[in-house]
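Hello forum,

I keep getting stuck at the same step: I have a sequence, I want structure tokens, and every attempt I make locally crashes halfway through. Rather than fight my setup again tonight, could one of you with a working pipeline run this one for me? It's a single chain of 339 residues.
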Amino acid sequence: MNAYDIVYAMDFAVSNRGGSRFFLELMLEMSKYFKVALITGKIDPYAYSMLRKNNIDIYYINAYNGCEYPASCIGGLSRFIIYMFKVLSNIKFKIIHTDNHFPNFISLVYFSRHIATIHHLENFKGFFKFVEWLEIKLPRLALHAPYKFSDSVIAIPTFVKYIPKSVVRSPVKGLVLMMGRLEERKHYILALASFKVSKYFRPELQLIIVGQGPELNRIQEVARRLRIQDSVTILPYITEEEKYDLYSKAEVFLHLGRPEGFSRVVFEAILAGIPTIAYRDIPAARMINARHVRLVDHDITKIARALIDPPKPGGQLRKPVSLVEAYRRLYEIFLRKDQ
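Reply #2:
Ran it on my machine without issues. Output:
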């Protein structure tokens, strides 16, 4: 029977989503110190190769083929939960760390050695709103749930190690940059309406949106109805090099997500010294008190005013940021209690 210090369980082990990428980075870092395994219902080739190169055992079932979200694929979700329990009953482990929503309910069985990660709480309705309420109540310790809090929650950024990359700024006048998954909670429609107003005063404004997701068609349709489609460019995918090239060229970075996790892209933009306009409750923006960061409400007029007169550029952060030691201390405390 295989034995592990830490078993991670996550619906999607993919490298193109912020929360999942954070979890993958966490596994890779902790595998340097502990025996680690992963249970997952979906994994992309890059993530698989990266984990196997670092001697992480992978227990995989193809449960979510063609599914955009676990909650949109109840049959796949059921298959994954059953598979997860089956694997856990056939291995030995000291800690189980689950990733978001339904897998977090494993607390009901493994309460004494369970850690849950809650990246953000969705705009759920009906039954799923009840599930969301239960999720925040159940875990022994929840890591990273900045939207709603309970006594068991610790809010953390969605990175394990972050070394700010140097960005040589050559801003293009009027270039507004947005990045993030194209979904309702990112409030792209509000951004488009605000952008439309601001263009009356600054006709040179151009908006680049980087992301893909279920709101793509709606965003394109609203841009056409507002007659700003020629000033809005949507890029579904870019490389890291292309991302930092856009950071260097952006006059201002705009992000209006709510509910939002830590928001890694906002954090990167701020560290790069890019003038940033963000919804006031985004943790990455709220925690950094800098002159080049402006916090706004979800109000068309206020967002438009900020786009018309954006904050001035700031300096770049050079010091590495790391959560590795905090995680190591946490896990070591848990492991000592199990001995």
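The first strand starts at residue 3 and ends at 13. If your local run keeps crashing, start a new thread with the error log.
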